[in-house]
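Example record for the data management plan.
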Amino acid sequence: MAINVTWADAEQTILRWNFVGRWNWREVSRALDHSRQLLADHDALSAMIYDIRQSGLIPADIVTHLRNTTYNPPAQLSNSHKIVIGADDYLQTFWNTFAQTLPAKCKVTFVDSLDAAYELVEKTRQIHNAHHR
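Corresponding structural encoding:
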């Protein structure tokens, strides 16, 4: 499978999709199913990391497929912080334009490294914890 879905932390609060080489929309569907299985015993997720640094080209018909997956995510992903590692300027511009048609909960943050993603998750947790004391 060109999309590997794993927990990114021991506490199982960060789910990571690692895209390697060429992949297709059927594999995205399988990754969503696998994510649902992993999340079955969890109420919420703090972050979702999509690592596309080793990804091949994005398959055709991206708008239709993104619309389907962003409007019907697993419930636990709805309020999680979504982070994409390795998106080039073109993909970031595309996403930011496309995201204007989506609910606010589909906001994505772009970073260049896994370390930067973890730092962002930690910063978000600190802010969240400060507001809920």
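Summary line stored alongside the record: Residues 86 and 112 are 5 Å apart (CA to CA).
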